[in-house]
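Schema walkthrough. Field components (list of strings):
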Amino acid sequence: MRIERLKNELREREADGYLVTNVNNVYYFTGFMDISAATLNLIIPQNGGAVLLTQPLSYKAAVEKAANCAVKEVPFGEKMVDRLIWEVRSLGLKHLEFDSIPIAIFLKLVEGLGEVKFKPNQDLIWDLRRVKSNEEIEFLRKASELADIGVEAGIEAVKPGVREYEIAAEAEYAMRVHGSEGVAFETIVASGPRSAHPHGVCSRRVVHEGDFIIVDLGAIYSGYRSDLTRTVVVGRPSKRQSQIVNLVLEAQREALQRIRAGLKAKEADSVARDVLASGGYDKYFLHGLGHGVGLDIHEPPTLSSGSDDVLEEGNVVTVEPGIYIDGFGGVRIEDTVLVHKYGVERLTHASYYL
Amino acid sequence: MRIERLKNELREREADGYLVTNVNNVYYFTGFMDISAATLNLIIPQNGGAVLLTQPLSYKAAVEKAANCAVKEVPFGEKMVDRLIWEVRSLGLKHLEFDSIPIAIFLKLVEGLGEVKFKPNQDLIWDLRRVKSNEEIEFLRKASELADIGVEAGIEAVKPGVREYEIAAEAEYAMRVHGSEGVAFETIVASGPRSAHPHGVCSRRVVHEGDFIIVDLGAIYSGYRSDLTRTVVVGRPSKRQSQIVNLVLEAQREALQRIRAGLKAKEADSVARDVLASGGYDKYFLHGLGHGVGLDIHEPPTLSSGSDDVLEEGNVVTVEPGIYIDGFGGVRIEDTVLVHKYGVERLTHASYYL
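Field assembly_structure (string):
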């Protein structure tokens, strides 16, 4: 059980408790997903049962959904932080690690609990979340199928005269109407010169013949996210456009062939980077090869030249080489894949179009 | 100018500088909107020009868009926090206030800058943002028009047999295709017994004849958000349903008639609460009457019984009374309005349907 795994980690350290406040982390441990703006405090003592403090508006849903913990309501007019101080003291905790707290709250905790040591340790939970369970993989598979549907609908809408946000509208609608719980992140539709910016999001730009169009999106299913990018050219690609697209495709193919459990994440990155270098385009690859994906869109492991991560069976990661040339345009091709012992399994399956 | 107003505030305090990290706040001061996951540091010294530190992927867009500051790129391989420490030291700042920083970064700053006092003071910027400029009001007006379009499309899709998320799909598509930059928050479509939970979001539940359906959504335009709720009954409302809907409508109407600059926010809340009490339903009104809305979906001022806020000309707030009866269902009616000297102006105009 996930809470037991966390407790085992705490046992190997000095901490006698862990405070979870991030809604995705609370969901990970209890199965209860609150809205992202909710204030939740899940206290997990190393010895004893976990306690979830909720605001009144979340209480009923928490009682219904939250497993592995006692649920307590902090009534209107009572401050959550005061109740938290009381609970930590009554549990006798002396050394608490936590995922994330707003600093103003942190300072109140430190003031109210002078005898308690607090240490931020978000990595502890990130590490637990790296290897996905079979159930999590099923959710990621569904989220990936929804992304396939979305990217296909978006690319279907590409034609001269359409605006970037109209393409996004079609893509997002297709995901939503098939059951996505929202967008996994701000959808990127970056056309023409805007495609040279990896963080393009969407603008009102009108698409023209000859443009590169990058469509980068994801869906959410049972809280789990997917991440998928396709690049198309409006009309007939130029020779240079084809050359760049093929190089990015080859970089992705090579990386996908090498990725497996045990590979250093930075080696995966360098495989792709070397392919781009063979065409003289590595200096236009402005980001890392990929990242883990799960309840959050960016999680460990990180596939980049500076990463110390080693890939494990059950990691779900993106593989997304790209080339971005200022004034000319950009190409990115990305899939979400599951790392197995001897290779990868694609979770996204959209056509490459080019 | 907004940065000058911030500096004036700093001048009246001990602080000699302010660190802005929230992307919406950076946009407020510079006009540059980065993706929400970006790491940005805008340092505003009380004396001297502001400096914006960006990651490489944000740099070009920041140079193009960010006004009122010098933009500096923190290259790959260099840690943002190290550069931030260097900049704060080279500017000679001794007492820095800030909006929000992850605690792990905060602890590194404190460690690296032992001589500097740090103080969280998000309220300083919240207060600057309370009164909207004419330009901000225009953006809020557009965002509100998009919400009208969304709620109308969503309610158009209501019929027995449809699923909640399908209603959300139609509403979100209509907003997006008309130019919304995304959803202002997770769309709520709460039907039947689920309508009794104010934080309903969307489920896969199938809508039935006789259900209450709460549709609560918002759009984004130029970064500014809107917030709008309508409740409908599928088919013919029962007598009790009509009674509850009329009471909520009356509570909203009374509050809208009373709200004007100078009114205490808690009085606005009590006007609505008193109307609900007249029908014996005040105990089912589980939240405050409303909240400010702007770049964030929840901002000051807060319209609730515990609020110390006084309404000002140029505030944009929601007015959203509701009744939530466990096992029976719920009703909420909400509009986004602009506070004027002698009353309010509606920014949302969707029909009431009932």
